[in-house]
From TrEMBL:
InterPro entries: YiaA-like, YiaAB. Residues 14-66 form the YiaAB two helix domain. This is YiaAB two helix domain-containing protein. Keywords: Membrane, Transmembrane, Transmembrane helix. PANTHER family: INNER MEMBRANE PROTEIN YIAA (PTHR37290:SF1), INNER MEMBRANE PROTEIN YIAA-RELATED (PTHR37290). It comes from the Bacteria. The keyword rRNA-binding does not apply. The chain crosses the membrane at residues 12-34, 40-61. The keyword Nuclease does not apply.
Length: 95
């Protein structure tokens, strides 16, 4: 049979860097919108647009991850079926 692949996990440093990068980007964007020389409704519109962009990016990332995980499950089931057929096959068996 085949070996079970090791589940890949992010390191704590990578996770921390990703969270910090996200926080810096959101804060910098918020400061930029707040300091923008425009009417309040324009700044509010830009703020809502940024929030919509962030939520849609999270949704897209989740959908991509779910599709990849589903593909891995189907691949493992297919691989198990092939291994079962190969284990049951005896090329020296006389018919």
């Amino acid at each position: 049979m085949s070996e079970t692949p090791v589940k890949q996990q992010s390191t704590a440093a990578f996770y921390g860097q990703a969270v910090a990068s996200f926080a810096v980007a959101i804060v910098a964007t918020a400061i930029g919108i707040f300091n923008l020389e425009a009417d309040a409704w324009v700044r509010a519109f830009l703020g809502i647009a940024v929030l919509y962009l962030v939520t849609s990016a999270f949704t897209l990332a989740k959908i991509i991850r779910d599709r990849q995980e589903a593909g891995q499950i189907v691949s493992r089931v297919d691989q198990a079926r092939v291994e079962q057929l190969l284990a049951a096959h005896d090329p020296f068996q006389k018919l």
